[in-house]
Amino acid sequence: MPEASKRSVGITCDDTGKRKSQKAFRVDKCKILLSERSSNCKFESLKLALIIVTCCTILTLAFSPIMSKEQQLRPGSRTRLADVARMWQTTLPDPRYISQLDVDWGLMSSVLEDVKAKEGDLRIGLLNFNSSEVEFWRRTLPHAEFSSVHLDYADPSITWKVLYPEWIDEEGEYDVPACPYLPQPQDKKGSRYDLIAAKLPCDRSGSWSRDVARLHLQLAAAKLAASASAGRSQVHVLLVTDCLPVPNLFGCRDLARHQGNLWLYKPETAALQEKLRLPIGSCELAIPFEAKVRMYTEVGRREAYATILHSAEQYVCGAIAAAKSIRLAGSVRDLVILVDGTISERERSGLEDAGWKVRTIQRIRNPKAKRDAYNEWNYSKFRLWQLTDYDKIIFIDADLLVLRNIDFLFAMPEISAIGNNATLFNSGVMVIEPSNCTFQLLMEHIDEITSYNGGDQGYLNEIFTWWHRIPKHTNFLKHFWAGDTAKRKARKDRLFGADPPVLYVVHYLGLKPWLCFRDYDCNWDLQMFWGFASDAAHATWWKVHDALSENLQRFCLLQTKTKAFLEYNRRQAAKANFPDGHWRRNISDPRLHICDEKFCSWERMLLNWGETNSSNASS
Ligand SMILES: *[C@@H]1O[C@H](CO)[C@@H](O)[C@H](O)[C@H]1NC(C)=O
Ligand SMILES: *[C@@H]1O[C@H](CO)[C@@H](O)[C@H](O)[C@H]1NC(C)=O
Ligand SMILES: *[C@@H]1O[C@H](CO)[C@@H](O)[C@H](O)[C@H]1NC(C)=O
Ligand SMILES: *[C@@H]1O[C@H](CO)[C@@H](O)[C@H](O)[C@H]1NC(C)=O
Ligand SMILES: *[C@@H]1O[C@H](CO)[C@@H](O)[C@H](O)[C@H]1NC(C)=O
Ligand SMILES: *[C@@H]1O[C@H](CO)[C@@H](O)[C@H](O)[C@H]1NC(C)=O
């Protein structure tokens, strides 16, 4: 069991020691590791120290006045040297960083009214303003003290795809994933500011929300704000841009004023510092390594698991099983379920019995969806942000099971999720931070943003482009790729069936286990769904089902039309002689014979579908 969990975590000190690659080592991480398990890390720390010493010597010799202490600690020696070299050459601005936007200095003066009212002279750090703009700054605030903070440009090889790779080697089988290095702002050590102002590019003709220079500048502004506020009263951050700043770095709750293209924030320094400790993209796991070892145990009164049922009674059983699984995994956090009017009183009481606190919501229509489309109401998920009696929510889809406690995810910021495809995250399990103004933000863009799949996942990915990767074992999709080898498939099946569990969460894609007979995964009977078929995962779900009280199991009965549908598919599979042979099995699931509807003859229903009586599912 500890062995298994280590595999799934993938990164522990011992593991890292075995690896050849050194590039993943970041100083702060090693510190954590060192303090936790000093003996295993000794060797690593020696090597690391050696690298640091070597780099530092080279750098200090060559460019000693420029390097700040922080950068000297960076071990990525070759790129660092290149950066430093470029710093000397560069005089021309990098087009990626240029913003053509004209600043309205009158408006600026009024937006800064509150900041100006502070006692004493203001100290202002400027990032990415050109010389004429700096001159305007001086004229606008004649008593302030300005410094233009130097920021090296990001290496051109760093694209958004590099920051957000589709796949990373989470378990470190071949290599330790590492994010590339983005240069840090170079302010004098101990500089203090009252205001950090940064001008951000925003190319609306391109993918402005997935723009490396834009993110880099915002991270630099955050870094300056987090480190430069020491001893002073609250530091402000002013972003000059036409487009929405990264909403989970500079949150709307911290937005003090917003006029035109001026966004004035009053961020919480501690929160910024936390966010700056995250990897810059999904190029590394964001999970604090030690969090997996040391279970997050504090009692979180303002933390809850949440899910949502909209226009989908069929998921009631799924949600009941999901709640049971969370409790079986040992979490005692609140469970909140958002339901709309389509869920009956009886079903609500079932959900409550299962442990969910039921809240009724108005559905939210996707204005771009077709009427009655399957995803017409998927934007209802935004209502999660209205659960403001909680600070953190782990959202889970209703079609998954929690096999091992994932409370440690409450330590993660918005939005933490697993990768989906391309640069996107999967919204099946995600950590969010409820906030009325974030909800407002999501609603404001509803007519403008197009979701690539018409669902909430596509939409949320447009707003939260800066997301944080958690291990895929925390939302393991029940899915096999057509190209998976038999060995790979067998390995996945072992994961689905492992007892004690290895996976934290199994996400049941395809036909849901409670809508199949318990005898086998009915995805086998539809060729289109073979990629979702796993008897091992199916059996795992049924174990949770069997742990439900008899009363709750009643919410998992099959409707007549579902029975007919299943038998229909089984017969088609028989006719096509599918090689897996599941269709040969006799159905022993007692639910076949239990019916609480008026019309119970699934056989007759089948006849209407052009099927004869001859072969029969019942044993
Ligand atoms: C600074 O930027 C502004 C806005 O794009 C531009 O109008 C101005 O010419 C620039 N000044 C210099 C010296 O580059
Ligand atoms: C992957 O993501 C892109 C958006 O970048 C989307 O258009 C595409 O349909 C996605 N593919 C799959 C298989 O989901
Ligand atoms: C958010 O809005 C709701 C009403 O829509 C209100 O009841 C709640 O108190 C608000 N939460 C906060 C934290 O302001
Ligand atoms: C929309 O919601 C339905 C029901 O919850 C779900 O089955 C479907 O996968 C969702 N679609 C998208 C595109 O998110
Ligand atoms: C299914 O049941 C029938 C009749 O009860 C029996 O003849 C047959 O052998 C059974 N098939 C399997 C695969 O158990
Ligand atoms: C089909 O089978 C059911 C019982 O399994 C029987 O009541 C019905 O009469 C049969 N119908 C036909 C058309 O054979």
UniProtKB/TrEMBL annotation:
<keyword id="KW-1133">Transmembrane helix</keyword>
<keyword id="KW-0472">Membrane</keyword>
<comment type="similarity">
    <text>Belongs to the glycosyltransferase 8 family. Glycogenin subfamily.</text>
</comment>
<keyword id="KW-0479">Metal-binding</keyword>
<keyword id="KW-0961">Cell wall biogenesis/degradation</keyword>
<dbReference type="GO" id="GO:0016757">
    <property type="term" value="F:glycosyltransferase activity"/>
</dbReference>
<keyword id="KW-0464">Manganese</keyword>
<dbReference type="InterPro" id="IPR029044">
    <property type="entry name" value="Nucleotide-diphossugar_trans"/>
</dbReference>
<keyword id="KW-0812">Transmembrane</keyword>
<keyword id="KW-0328">Glycosyltransferase</keyword>
<keyword id="KW-0808">Transferase</keyword>
<dbReference type="GO" id="GO:0071555">
    <property type="term" value="P:cell wall organization"/>
</dbReference>
<dbReference type="Pfam" id="PF01501">
    <property type="entry name" value="Glyco_transf_8"/>
</dbReference>
<protein>
    <recommendedName>
        <fullName>Hexosyltransferase</fullName>
        <ecNumber>2.4.1.-</ecNumber>
    </recommendedName>
</protein>
<dbReference type="GO" id="GO:0000139">
    <property type="term" value="C:Golgi membrane"/>
</dbReference>
<feature type="transmembrane region" description="Helical">
    <location>
        <begin position="48"/>
        <end position="67"/>
    </location>
</feature>
<dbReference type="InterPro" id="IPR050587">
    <property type="entry name" value="GNT1/Glycosyltrans_8"/>
</dbReference>
<dbReference type="GO" id="GO:0046872">
    <property type="term" value="F:metal ion binding"/>
</dbReference>
<dbReference type="InterPro" id="IPR002495">
    <property type="entry name" value="Glyco_trans_8"/>
</dbReference>
